[in-house]
Amino acid sequence: MAVTVETLEKLERKITLTLPVVAAESEVEKRLKKIARTVKMDGFRPAKSP
Fold it and tell me: Is the residue at 28 inside a domain?
């Protein structure tokens, strides 16, 4: 992961963050699996498959 901070004006800053795609994809997968257990959708009863 690489972070660069550029000074544009007196109080303005530009931050550029670069991270590997693998790290982002694994984090998304992990959070989707966590949310999948508790999500509520109209028309579906908990623990029942249609």
Answer: yes
Number of domains in the chain: 1
**Residue 42 falls within a domain, yes or no?**
no
**According to the model, what pLDDT value does residue 36 have?**
83
Instruction: Give per-residue pLDDT as tens, 16-47.
Output: 999 999 989 999 999 999 988 888 878 777 66
Alpha helices in 1-50 (DSSP H): 21-36
* Full-model pTM: 0.51
Task: Report how far residue 20's alpha carbon sits from residue 1's, in angstroms, rounded to the nearest whole number.
Answer: 7
* Domain carrying residue 6: 2-36
Cα separation of 12 and 25, whole Å? 31
Residue recorded with tokens 């795609």: 21
